[in-house]
Every structure is written in C-alpha cells, then in structure tokens.
Amino acid sequence: MSEPYITFPDVEQLVVDLLKDRGELAGVLVDVQPPSGFDGSQRAVLVSRVGGAWAEDPRLDNPLVDLEVYGPSKPAAHTVSLVARSLMLQLRGAVYGAATVVDVVEEDGPRWLPDYRHATAARYVSTTRLVVRPA
C-alpha cells in the first residue's frame, strides 16, 4: 500500500502573503524578487527558501527562509529588519490554506551583509527555520 501524496505549501509565498499586508510593514515591498529598477535603496523584504528538509515522520517540512531586508540607509534597513524579524517569530500557529506553521526558530538574526550588486544598497539578512504541517 502506498503512502498518501503530501503537498507542502510554497513557503516563500506563505511568508510573503502573511507579512505583506501587516501594518508594521506599511510602505515596505515584501516579495520573492526585487521589482524592475530596484537599486537596493528602497525599503524591501525579499523572501527566499534557502534549504531545509522534509521530516518524514511526523510529516513536517522544515524550510530555512532568508529575509534580505533593504533600506535607504543602514539604520533604516536595520529598523525594517527588526520589524520583519519580530513578525516572522509571530508566524507560529499561522494557518495558510490547509497548512499550519507549527513552529518558528530563528537560526541567525539580522546581520549586516552589503550587497555588492547595488552600490546604494543597505542590507541586513536573517535566517529563520519554519516547521510546517500540511493538511
């Protein structure tokens, strides 16, 4: 007898959808890729799954998610990164479609990481592990 097919949600879209309309991030772009003409000086949170693994038993996904947070200055980017960090930690218990975020663990808090592709960029990067249970 075969096991039932398990479908995990797109964790990048899960994070974007759960963060983008939060009032704390008003005026901040939250997406998986920068918009056309992005030069790194805009307030933005870019979401990327950077790893993680499926735990077969009890059927949980453990994605690692990076947030690249940009701003017009180092202090502005840092402020946005701290807000995004706090909101990520609040995702525990969030329901997204038929999936539930069971746990949230910060693996690496916001760290200054210059973006050499964009001369005007001020960027902080953080990594968070989510534990997601599908329906």
Can you tell me about this structure?
There is one protein chain. The chain has helices spanning 11-19, 74-89; strands at residues 29-31, 44-55, 60-71, 95-96, 99-112, 122-133. It has 135 residues and is of the alpha+beta class. Strands 1-2-3-6-5-4 form a 6-stranded mixed sheet. A hairpin with a 4-residue loop joins β2 (44-55) and β3 (60-71). The longest helix has 16 residues, at 74-89. The model has no long low-confidence stretch (mean pLDDT 95).
List keywords for this structure.
single chain; 135 residues; 2 helices; alpha+beta; 19% helix; elongated
Provide the fold topology.
Layout: H1 11-19, E1 29-31, E2 44-55, E3 60-71, H2 74-89, E4 95-96, E5 99-112, E6 122-133
Number of strands: 6
Rg, Cα atoms, Å: 16 Å
Anisotropy-based shape: elongated
Low-confidence stretches: none
Order of helices and strands: HEEEHEEE
- The percent range for strand residues is 35-45%
Average pLDDT confidence is 95
Q: Please give the share of residues in helix.
A: 10-25%
| Helical/strand content category | alpha+beta
Number of helices: 2
